[in-house]
Design a protein that fits this description.
The complex is a heterodimer of chains A (374) and B (448).
Chain A lengths: L9 E5 L10 E4 L6 E4 L6 E11 L2 E8 L11 E4 L7 E6 L6 E8 L3 E11 L2 E11 L5 E12 L5 E7 L6 E5 L3 E14 L1 E7 L16 E8 L14 E8 L5 E9 L7 E9 L2 E17 L5 E16 L5 E8 L4 E6 L4 E4 L2 E8 L4 E10 L4
Chain B lengths: L5 E7 L8 E4 L3 E9 L5 E11 L2 E9 L4 E10 L6 E8 L6 E8 L3 E11 L2 E11 L5 E12 L8 E7 L1 E2 L5 H5 L14 H23 L5 E2 L9 E6 L2 E6 L3 E2 L5 E13 L1 E6 L1 H4 L3 E8 L14 E8 L6 E9 L7 E9 L2 E17 L5 E16 L5 E8 L5 E6 L5 E5 L2 E8 L3 E14 L4
Parallel strand pairs in B: 3-12, 10-21, 19-26
Antiparallel strand pairs in B: 1-2, 1-5, 3-4, 4-9, 5-8, 6-9, 7-8, 10-11, 11-18, 12-16, 14-17, 15-16, 19-20, 20-23, 21-22, 24-25, 25-30, 26-29, 27-30, 28-29
The chains are: A mainly beta (374), B mainly beta (448).
């Protein structure tokens, strides 16, 4: 197993006038002090560590090596925290064929200097996972979120302050090749909305003509807001696993989805699984050309259409259901008559919110014209 | 030799990880399996009684040679929850298939906990047998479920539950179980880990061989019963949960068949369909019924599966094989049509009796602008069977610009969509009927 020996920080001092190698001497090998693992940016992990450097008067060479560890070389920074006015960083050089660099620091006198070294370290990150347990009626969930720290950086962190972009920082050690799962957030009784969705552009129209059942996607919606006992912070992206109370002091697994980052005020949508108890049969019952306009050669140059689409929506469940029915009409169009109310989401998309009672069948009829079809 | 490898132990942290001692090895006191059929997925809930000390405790859980998804592991105290703080779950470095819970306990003594996780390797499917009465008016429906355990673990005396439903899955549990590290790693290290993986796979194969040679015990039910077990069925969310009475032991590698449904005298309709676009020139036989009270069903949906249909042919209850059908999940109150294949004893023959064109329109230059095509079909329908049949004849015109005129002495046609019509006929035993229709297809400008 690869185990990296690194961060050998060697402090070397050389008198400005005396450039001979023989005169360079090792004056200190400082231990790593306070360390921060900053995980607020999912794209990269920033490490900040503090060390006390014992500098001598003159130019000091500080050697920094990272064998066996992958870090972003151009991200390495050295910040002198104490005596910043006096201690000057003169230059940085990179020795050949080594994972290392050498800082040259000028000090006007012998000083103990607190310095912070920061860099972007590869192979260490965090994931967020969620576990939601819905009640039997599917009106609310108990939500738990775990932070998963993964360290494959090559470096052991015995103890570090771990910082996220919100919440309290905490002390946590993590070894190379270690994964830790920590409870991050827990909130019971978060209200949810359960929605069934049928998008006519994505699902087959006639379920009888397909070999399997046409599953109607079921989504849980959780609002990241105060009224939902959330709303303090964004909910990070991650995998959500949804379970449900089975009424027998146990649970069943309902399904899982990846959620995107949900800012405060927005909704988390979790596609749980498919319903096969809602059946939608959609048919085009009419498509005719009307208002035909011709050119001098009597060829048709422009026409409108007269179209009728019907959708039979059957709820075979013994419970009510709220179906979001999405229809698409391309181009320029006008609705002649529609049996249900809809919301126009964009030029070509219509959304119907269909409330279905237990075992109810409803029918949508859309009679519309596409205008000025060439 | 016990070859399964879920081991659970409490380790008391003394002064550090190097000095932890294995103090107890609590047995599994109860286990419940919830097996899915739409994905290779089983939820396992185990009850164990841990003996904890006041202060810091480490609970070790390992699962070598199983197919557990380590990211799904969870421990829930079933009592004294306020005294217990599950601080973290650590997957220590340079180990495989091992998790360590750090638990801070405010009390000493036994604490019952539930450990739950998802595993791969179990499966179940439904299949059916149908036996038609001699007059083909009713059918006896018998349903079975077959549960198979390839999980790598024996799970003795498990409460077994089956889920009917289609769950959304992001990652296959089997893939998660085979990862080198529970949550993977941010970037791939050099290949030595892959060697570990192949070693692990190999050892698993060896294990399997060993099991086969050692002849694992036959499956058994937890309780000796003098009758077949019942299955309790209930709806949860979009799924149905089947709970098998009592407990089951299905050792790794074994399957078990359990009856799930047995209903006699379900009324059926012998339905035949003729649709050239879908079934070609032969008539296809369907058995049609509804999953409702009228048909002595309708308590729960019927899980998808295949059915073999037989018919009682004589008083000695000999059977003939009628055909096989696969069907979809059938919700309560939904109609089902079992397609048991093409037949030759019910035939539909549409014949084109006349063809002509008419109603020509011309433009100013004298070119044709539109016309009608007029086809007259005679449809001959024969039922050579000794039972009455219902026949649906579906005609697709591949154009929305049509008119239809029909003559004949029975049923009207139904427009099912813009270019399809359906004629429905009922024929007594050994009979035939003919009807005629005239289809006018408008072409060119005659469409408008």
């Amino acid at each position: 197993m690869r185990k990296c020996k690194w961060w050998m920080l060697v402090l070397l001092a050389a008198a400005a006038a005396q450039v001979s190698e023989a005169r360079i001497k090792l004056v200190a090998l400082p231990d790593r002090g306070d360390t921060v693992i900053r995980l607020d940016n999912p794209a990269a992990t920033l490490i900040e560590e503090e060390r006390v450097l014992t500098l001598q008067k003159g130019v000091n060479k500080v050697d920094f090596a990272w064998n066996g560890v992958s870090l972003d070389v151009d991200s390495i920074r050295l910040t002198v925290l104490s005596h910043p006015e006096q201690v000057k960083l003169l230059n940085v050089s990179y020795p050949p064929n080594e994972q290392a660099l050498v800082w040259e620091l000028a000090s006007p006198e012998a000083l103990e200097v607190k310095a912070r070294i920061s860099y972007l370290l590869n192979g260490i990150d965090r994931l967020i996972t969620y576990k939601a347990v819905a009640d039997k009626e599917e009106t609310q969930v108990d939500l738990k979120s775990h932070l998963v720290l993964r360290n494959f950086s090559g470096e052991d962190f015995t103890s570090a302050r771990v910082l996220l972009n919100y919440g309290e920082a905490f002390e946590q050690g993590i070894q190379h090749e270690e994964t830790k799962q920590l409870l991050f957030m827990k909130q019971d009784g978060i209200p949810i909305e359960k929605i069934w969705t049928f998008d006519a552009a994505k699902k087959p129209w006639d379920p009888e003509k397909v070999s399997g059942n046409v599953g109607i996607p079921v989504t849980y919606k959780i609002k990241n807001e105060k009224e939902s006992k959330l709303g303090e912070n964004s909910l990070w992206d991650g995998k959500v696993r949804v379970y449900q109370d089975d009424g027998h002091e146990g649970t069943i697994f309902l399904g899982e989805d990846n959620t995107a980052l949900v800012p405060v005020g927005e909704e988390m949508e979790v596609y749980v699984g498919d319903s096969r108890d809602l059946v939608i049969t959609q048919r085009k019952m009419q498509e005719k050309q009307i208002n035909i306009r011709r050119n001098n050669s009597n060829h048709i140059v422009l026409y409108d259409t007269d179209e009728i689409i019907t959708a039979k929506i059957e709820n075979f469940k013994d419970k009510p259901a709220k179906l979001l029915l999405i229809q698409h009409i391309p181009g320029q169009w006008e609705m002649e008559k529609c049996s249900m109310e809809y919301e126009r989401k964009d030029a070509g998309t219509l959304e119907f919110t269909v409330e279905l009672k237990p075992q109810e069948t409803r029918e949508l009829t859309m009679h519309y014209h596409r205008r000025n079809v060439r | 030799m016990r070859w399964t490898a879920i081991i659970c132990g409490v380790l008391f942290a003394v002064t550090g990880f190097a000095k932890v001692d294995l103090v107890t090895l609590p047995v599994r006191e109860g286990v419940q399996l919830t097996i899915y059929n739409s994905a290779d997925l089983t939820l396992v809930r185990e009850n164990r009684a841990l003996t904890l000390r006041e202060g810091a405790n480490k609970l070790q859980f390992s699962w070598a040679n199983t197919l557990i998804d380590p990211t799904s592991l969870e421990m829930i105290p079933l009592a004294f929850a306020a005294d217990l703080d599950v601080a973290d779950l650590t997957y220590p470095p340079r180990t495989r298939n091992l998790g360590l819970w750090n638990v801070k306990s405010g009390r000493s003594g036994k604490v019952p906990v539930e450990i739950n996780y998802l595993t791969s390797g179990f499966s179940w499917r439904a299949f059916y047998m149908g036996t038609l009465s001699e007059d083909e008016k009713t059918i006896r429906l018998q349903g079975y479920v077959r549960v198979t355990n390839n999980s790598g673990e024996d799970y003795e005396n498990a409460e077994t539950r089956l889920i009917v439903g289609k769950v959304n899955i992001i990652d296959r549990i089997a893939d998660l179980a085979r990862r080198d590290y529970p949550y993977g790693q941010p970037w791939k290290l050099p290949q030595e880990d892959d060697k570990d993986y192949s070693r692990m796979k190999k050892s698993r194969r060896e294990m399997k061989n060993e099991v086969m040679m050692a002849m694992a015990p036959a499956p058994s039910s937890g309780v000796t019963m003098m009758r077949q077990k019942e299955i309790r069925k209930e709806g949860l969310s979009e799924y149905f949960l089947y709970t098998i009475e009592g407990t089951e032991t299905i050792p790794h590698g074994w399957s078990k068949r359990l009856p799930s449904l047995d209903v006699a005298d379900v009324p059926v309709v012998n339905l035949y369909k003729f649709e050239e676009d879908r079934y070609g020139e032969r008539t296809v036989r369907f058995l049609s019924f509804k999953n409702d009270k009228e048909h002595k069903l309708g308590d729960t949906p019927i899980p998808d599966g295949s059915i073999r249909v037989y018919r009682t042919v004589d008083e000695a209850a000999h059977l003939s094989y009628e055909g096989r059908a696969s069907f979809k999940y059938i919700p309560v109150d939904e109609k089902v049509e079992l397609n048991i294949g093409a037949v030759s004893d019910v035939t539909v023959e549409p014949k084109l009796m006349d063809y002509k064109t008419d109603q020509y329109q011309f433009d100013r230059k004298g070119n044709i602008r539109g016309w009608d095509e007029i086809r007259t079909f005679e449809v001959e329908v024969k039922n050579m069977r000794p039972v009455p049949v219902k026949i649906e004849i579906i005609r697709n015109f591949h154009s929305p610009y049509w008119d239809l005129k029909k003559s004949g002495d029975f049923g009207e046609f139904e427009k099912t969509d813009l270019d399809t019509v359906k004629f429905t006929l009922e024929l007594p035993p050994h009979s035939e009927k003919k009807f005629e229709y005239t289809l006018i297809l408008h072409q060119g400008d005659r469409r408008n």
